[in-house]
Amino acid sequence: MKKFLVSCFFASLLFACTEKFPVEVINLQCENLTGPVIDISTPRLSWEIVSPGRDIRQKFYSILVSSSLEKLNNDEGDLWDIRKVKSDNSIYVSYEGDRLDSRREYFWKVKVKTNRGESEWSKPASWTMGLTDSKDWQAKWTGLNAVSERDVLTERKTRLAARYFRKEFNIPKKVEKASMYISGLGLYEAYINARRTGEQVLSPTPTDYSKAVKYNTFDVTDQLNEGNNAIGVVLGNGRFFAMRYKRVRDFGFPRMILQLEIKYADGSSETIVSDDSWKATAEGPILANNEFDGEEYDARKEFPGWNKAGFDDSAWSSAELVDAPGGQLEAQINRNIKVMETIRPKSVSEIQPGIFVMDMGQNMVGWLRMKVKGEAGREVKLRFSETLKEDGTLYTANLRGAAATDIYILKGDESETWSPSFTYHGFRFVEISGFPGKPAADNFEGLVVFDEMEATGEFETSDKTINQIYQNARWGIMGNYRGMPTDCPQRDERMGWLGDRAIGSQGESFMFNINNLYAKWLDDIEQAQREDGSVPDVAPNYWSVYSDNMTWPGAYVIIANMLYDQYGDRKPMEKHYESMKKWIGYMQDKYLKDGIMTKDTYGDWCMPPESPELIHSKDPARKTDGAVLSTTFYYRILCILEKFAILLEKEEDAGVFALQAENIKNGFNDKYFNKDTKQYSNNTVTANLLPLCFGMVPDEYKEGVFKNIVDKTMGEFKGHVSTGLVGIQWLMRGLTEYERPDIAYRIATNRDYPSWGYMIEKGATTIWELWNGDTANPEMNSGNHVMLLGDLIVWFYEYLAGIQNDPNGAGFEEIVMKPNPVDGLDYVKASYKSVRGLVKSEWTKASGQFTWNITVPCNSTATVYVPITADKNRVTESGKKASASKGVKFLRLTDKYRVFRVGSGNYSFKVE
Length: 912
Ligand code: RAM
Hints:
By secondary structure, this protein is an alpha+beta fold. It is built from 15 helices and 52 strands. The strands form eleven sheets. Strands 22, 23, 27, 28, 29, 30, 33, 34, 35 and 36 form a ten-stranded mixed sheet that branches. Strands 10, 14, 17, 19, 20, 25 and 26 form a seven-stranded mixed sheet that branches. The longest helix is centred in the last third of the chain and has 22 residues, at about 625-645. About 55% of the residues are buried. Alpha-L-rhamnopyranose binds near residues 497, 499, 605, 769 and 787.
């Protein structure tokens, strides 16, 4: 004690004697997941530290990994035992213990020592290894290649009945543990003894099945009985069997691989595998299923008891051994899709005798659950649409070739409840016909489906338009997750377009924990890369679009960068570095001419056109030159690649990228910049904005270039957006960085055309594909696209609330908290669950006083910009002069902010 006091005394000569606080380690994650099944030999472990104290920083960590919970509880880390490792790192610590075996569950815990106290061991967590070796798979790819009578396989249309498979087996003794590994392509539903396995829908996650196939793992111990048992599997088309023969990629008839491993209490084991001993049929109730067209279900064709033991399957044929799809079998670590919410319809009205239109009140993605009672053979038809025509009937022109129709044929039971298995719709309205009697809202429920990812952000302001836009964006974003980010959920497209998600993904990262989903998408992109280096515009490449440009494929690099910045995850950049380099080399060789990246495909896609019915502007004065887009993006991508090369310690590459960037900047400025007018190219907002935001504009011209952006926006466009998908990715941040958050705020709150608020005025509950989505040609006017959000959500969190990962660091280790309290906003409340824990920012402006409560997670520090004005600049924290408050260090004064540095903890600032 005496010794401690003495050292404390000496330490206090340097800084105040360190106060101790309780510290706890929580939220243990392996590969970003709680309790996952993985097949990665060096999984990465992360944890969070919580404490009521301020300025808590990790100094040491200890990790134990054990082969049993018992051992772990006895502090016996028989696989990995590392104690007191001097490190401040609490995320993505690579496992370096003994070899991990297939099928085993591993238990782990963490303990940390911080600058202000030590934690106890955390609660135990675990992960399970999947089948890590291809030899572990004894199961065979099994299918049914026959075409049933109702199947249609023409160029423009495909219709295929679902395939049903069953297998009975006997369990003679007590089961200790049973695990089921399954991949059913395109989609599967599995049952054991009539009970559904897992809650997932539309699974497994979609891939290029010739390159990778994801399997799911379930602990099914509870589903087995002693005696006779049965497994039943239903296969739907998903993205495997082509939804259209023309244009959409086809992988063949549905097939599956399933392995059920049973460990008995007496130590013996047994494995049930998919093979030709199974029985199969395509004559079941799902007559047709197709994500574009819907599902047809004849309840009279159900076979009661088919997924239980004892069913007479003599009419079924033998399942066939089929070719493997070719892709590597891997444990799926991006989450499966699930029914995440249910909503009640708002109204049902009869628009013609026997024809009803139901309004869900929200443009949603998923399907209906219907309760119905009527005579056998009656056909209820459900047609889906996003909007209505003026006469109250469905507007389906924008669905293009997608039939988006479900059909249910009644079996005549007392009460029948049905929802489809292998389709989904993007809809707000449903036309119901054939319903026995009058359907009521009570007969239906809307099941909202998307990838089961943790919601990480909350955002609210005093502005109703902003709040509604945020909600519309949220519905659009979640509705377009389908194991990949899709462009739209309703028409015959639903593809993973790269360009739509470049900066948008950063905004999404505030709302959902998208790390594993986007890491998987980068794999999809890599798998779609051509031998010569070309990266497609769509991945997985169910549509083959290799048009070579910078703005769409560039998302490959931009998203890897987002995963590093937002999550501190180096793996995506490491894993994809070589393919990115190959891609940029390919583009250089083919399209770099005289210092300009010449190739572009889409322009500033979907900018507001000059007349309402147009999809794309024809006016050369409004359109940004393609080479301006591709060259600026090329420059930006070189800068990111240089950053990657530095982080990966590839100095030579870093030098090359830096030099290339410098050259392209000069070439670009020579060709496109007019020093007299301070304009780039034809002076569109996008043409000036991109070089400005990317750092290509010489310092002395920055102001002039920005003035052109302001003049154009406020003059010709009267305070409205004038960009498409490309410019919008930087617009809100660009305006704010150059001190005009008021214009960004105006753009965000406009209610007239073109704006997100205009969409709301016109009844939108999601975000449209086109600014003029209400008047344009229906060929391309989805009501649920997220690409025009650009950097809006990023701006909400980083600039309105002021929660931003410090661009010099990664994963919110250093946080920049810099709100922009624009005139018109009274409050902003936001929270974000970062990889290091909760970050919060809540500010209010009332009676001339600015109050700001913030939370900084343990093991992070924040640079805090407290907004001041000429007459209001006295800053307090928890009632004390801020610079004198504990844990708060004054850094500097700017004309708009008093800047402090704080450690973790809760702070309450006031400016008077
Ligand atoms: C359309 C989609 C998509 C876009 C491409 C270029 O098919 O709307 O969102 O990225 O075009």
